[in-house]
Amino acid sequence: MDLAVVWFCVIAVLWLGYLFLEGFDFGVGMLLPVLAKDNTERRVMINTIGPVWDGNEVWVIVAIGATFAAFPGWYASLLSAAFLPLLVVLLGLIGRGVAFEYRGKVDTDRWRRGWDRMIITGSWIAALGFGLIIATTVFGLPLDQNGNRVGSVLAAVRPETVLGAVALAGFSLVHGAVFLSLKTDGEIRLRARRLATRFGPFALLPLGALLVWVQVDSGSVWTWLAVAAVVVAAASAFERLEKGREGQAFAALGVVIAASVVGLFGALYPNVLPSTLDPAFSLTVAQTASSPYTLTVMSWVALFGTPAVLVYQGWTYWVFRKRVSAAHIPPVHVP
Amino acid sequence: MAAGPSVPEAELVDVLDLARWQFGITTVYHFLMVPLTIGLSVLVAGMQTAWVRTGDEKYLRMTKFWGKLLLINFAMGVVTGIVQEFQFGMSWSEYSRFVGDVFGAPLAMEGLVAFFVESTFLGLWIFGWDRLPKRVHLACAWAFSLATIASAYFILAANSWMQHPVGVVMDEGRPRLTSIWAVLGNNTALAAVPHTVAGCFAVAGAFLVGIAAWHLWRDRGDQPVWRASIRLGSWVGVVSFAALAVTGDMQAKLMFEQQPMKMAAAEALCHTEQPASFSVFAIGDVSRPDCESVKSITVPALLSFLAHNDFDTEVRGVNDLVVEYQAKYGTNYPVDERLGELSGKPIDYVPVLPVTYWGFRLMIGFGAVSAFIGLAVLWLTRKGRLPRTKWFPRLALAGIATPFIGNSMGWIFTEMGRQPFVVVPNPSGVDGVWMFTARAVSGLTVGEVLTSLIALTLVYAALAAVEVFLIARYVRAGVAGVMPDKPDKPDEPSDTLAFAY
């Protein structure tokens, strides 16, 4: 098999890892004002992702770095053409990351409220923003023959990419709520589960709409099959949740996002970033790929590196497998 | 060309300047957090090792206190590092397209084999105090801290390739990677890594010395903790400076060979000299190419020694190198509308001399001051002594800034010193592989780059204030601020987490 195609799949897998893992991180942040009634409950929520959010975030850094290494033209065109949306995403990630670490470091309501606001808006911005960016690479940008953007600085903001933004935010909400019902105990667990069962199906509708739009645009038989898998997995997720099987529901949501990534990247292939001006200007896997030697080097690194990451990150989740509840939260101790 | 970026030509130069300012600001800022994280994480892992091996409570208290400051700083390093991973594509897309076959690989490796380890094991370390067996928990601290050094290695390998491209051939106008081992084993990188890592330890050493000196002088408890910290910090600082001097000398010798213009610019050496004297200090405007207005205090023949290890080798000056560069790399930029105002203009091969000249001296000077403070503290605190003068903590606290400034000056010197190139031509190796900074920038609008320059600068400034505020708060509180007195007996089972956000 062609290494360039393999690396296209690797990039998709890295995005999948990111969306699966940070999807619930985003959801937890977005739901902070909805599910928690007081500071202890907010701390319960934040501590479900406390030990892991930073490791989860590395998935996107590696996805972007791997795109640079394997498809420099894709990396260069997408990031420079979607400059302003990405700047907003970066600011969101900055605020949110610092907020997790700093919110508990001073014991006043004002201090915590400020950082909570940053966690909430940062999580919304990042979920919406990465949804927009992924939809942008699938639907394309007005690129000239050199891969440079022609026209508005907001060329990446269009109805179909905004739908992508809402789709990822909706998925993150459901994923976060189910994750919280799996990782907490007490009132929050019940509230999270109730929220997910009641509103979850609606929150996933934009994702469904996005997938259908993409398939109508550039789908094939097997990407339509992926969409069917999304529907079945989503239905079973809610069915399992009704039965109180939170772990199975969470796993089913994993299938939802995996099949979604297959549906999106599958429809994108053999392009990596279409030009909306002229199909002849579209960036393709073959044309933007690095040399076979570079791809071979990166394949060896990924072959040994990725399983190791999965093992030690999996171990982290095992170490912190216990549910968090208000009783576990130590009193605030700050200087 | 069917459709270029819809920007007036003259504006493109501004995009270049703005993008350079942004890269400079965000990278120098990022490298305030990075050296403290690298140096301090290894020292904290060492403190925890001492605790696990001796069972001495003092070392546990050190681990907890310095570990907390490490975490406050690490958060900032992470979020400013994310920007770096995106910035090449966003602002420097032409550069990314040109070098992608080579440059992306070490970046991706850094993420996959170093940063993943850092982030995951740091989470385990922070939250794992009561969840993991003592030795496994200690291993997490080492995994995290050694991964920070691995990160530094990959990033410096990428940067060194820009200073000295190796392991490639030109293929359809772009360098194509032929040997990853040449890139990872680049002699420029092998010299840069120990020099940079030594700079990181100099930062961590000064940090320990400044804060511990203040606590010792204040004398409100935990004296053994502060005494052990100040001794450790000053030894680390002094040894780091020795390492900085040796590795810096190695780097300089390579640079005379690989980037002669950068080293001539470091000296503001106008004319070729044999033997060449080293300028310690200059009075006057070093940016004047004729050198005539500059009075310089010099050490005869020292520059020859720094360049080649003997006292009579010729060292080439800026004026001769310009002629040589023009012959090799052209006298004018190509005519290309994307170059804006620079299109077809003569290429200025001389870096900004005041920046390179003074950057080089301030790097060495601040490093030396830092080492001197370390030596002084070692002497003043020998055999359990403690100076009572209030100048002692003041000097030590101010000393924290010196290695930070030295590091920043070193980076500003080495990055500004390679202009006008972003990828510097390798004079003795690969043919045809170089890139002018002016050609590397993305075809963005001034509005876009200005927005991001302002937004990132403001956010970074605000976060710097927050970080300094928090560090000062935790420093003032001492060990008590990070170790709550436990009401329960330690062996009594408790449901409460040992640490939670």
Automatic annotation (TrEMBL), chain A:
Where does it live in the cell? Cell membrane
Determine if Oxidoreductase is one of this entry's keywords. Answer: no
How is this protein positioned relative to the membrane?
Answer: Multi-pass membrane protein
Q: Where are the transmembrane segments?
A: 6-36, 57-75, 81-99, 119-141, 161-183, 195-215, 221-238, 250-269, 297-320
Question: Where is it mainly found?
Answer: membrane
UniProt entry tagged with the keyword Transmembrane: yes
**InterPro entries this protein is in?**
Cyt-d_oxidase_su2
Q: Which Pfam families match?
A: Cyt_bd_oxida_II
Q: Provide the alphabetized UniProt keywords.
A: Cell membrane, Electron transport, Heme, Iron, Membrane, Metal-binding, Transmembrane, Transmembrane helix, Transport
Q: Which PANTHER family match?
A: CYTOCHROME BD-I UBIQUINOL OXIDASE SUBUNIT 2, CYTOCHROME BD2 SUBUNIT II
Q: Which family does it belong to?
A: Belongs to the cytochrome ubiquinol oxidase subunit 2 family.
Q: Report what the protein is called.
A: Cytochrome d ubiquinol oxidase subunit II
